[in-house]
Amino acid sequence: MNKEIVLIITSETSGCVHVRLWNNMYYINANYEKYRTRIITSPVPIFDANLLMQTKCIIIHRLSTPQQLEWLKRYRELAPKYNIKLISEYDDNFTEFRGETLSPWHPNAVVKRDYSAIDKIVSEACRYLDGIIVSTYWLKKCFVEKFNFENIYLIENANPRSLWQLERRTEFNTERPKVMFAGCPQHWREPVNISQQTLAGIVGDIGDFSRAWIDWIIKHVNAGDIDFHSNCQLPYFLDCIAEKTTVHPWVDTNNYPGNMCRIRPEFIIAPLKRCVFDLQKSDIKRVDCACMGTILLGTRFEEGPYANIPCGLEENCTVEDIDKMFEFGKQNWKALTENEYNWINKNGRFIESEEHVNKFLSACSSLNSRLI
Prior knowledge:
Layout: E1 5-9, H1 15-30, H2 32-35, E2 38-42, H3 49-54, E3 55-61, H4 66-82, E4 85-90, H5 116-128, E5 131-134, H6 137-147, E6 152-154, E7 178-181, H7 211-223, E8 227-231, E9 246-248, H8 256-263, E10 267-270, H9 276-279, H10 284-292, E11 295-299, E12 312-313, H11 319-331, H12 333-346, H13 354-363
Parallel strand pairs: 1-2, 1-3, 3-4, 4-5, 5-6, 7-8, 7-10, 8-9, 10-11, 11-12
């Protein structure tokens, strides 16, 4: 029997599972005649014998709970009988690595977490798994160094071309460009006043921003030479320009591409700081920008997500450094956007690219595949 089914088990409906697994599922299922693979998803494990006979791979998304571990153990008992490959998938920081966990400014870092229970579960799971899919080089390093697990499939994030349907940019506002901060609130920490819920209060932290980035934004917004936008909310340290800023409400993952295509900024800024949390982040913002013909101004450091972007800045950059890169972007927008269009097309960063699909199907391939 030709085994055609890949079973994804996840109870999440977050953006991560859409980007990492479900977008692949939608495209591959829509092209069944080509790939001869059917992907199904379930919030709970399925042990039906008829289904398992047709299943070549089971993916337990972000395996980190005792319940998931028990599911994996049962599947490991059945795997030899049904010749099923067992893998998990991780897309973000989930444990302490090299003495670091969440970034110090992450909202969840206010309360110290004990990662020993998760580490114990993941360590045991590695004994039963045939492979693990990760999104970044630093997540791979974590599994190799900390858990001594080397059968890693590094599959970088990709966007569905079908959701980012824009023609290549032919116009670029150099007089008053639209500049957007599109990062999530985990990149800084909002202050919280003393209350019954937070007796000690919470001190704000500028997080991945530096003083130079903040001063640069305020300077240009007040001068009126940029049209500044922010995603979800405006960080507290930019309250002084709130009336001059457009804040876009949060939208879910399926609506995010359409929303960004309607906004279509000339520039997106992405300040970062070198820490394990940011090193494990993917370069999905670069992929988004490439789809829109938007120039990404981001922090560039070795092995970081934006290490190779054309308009990268050092972590200790000054306002003058950002100004120079901003002017460079405005003057060379056509060449820069064409470069990124070519980058995304040549490096398999669309879901529909054969390179990306082959990576995903290879990770899900049967253990005893007859393919050479």
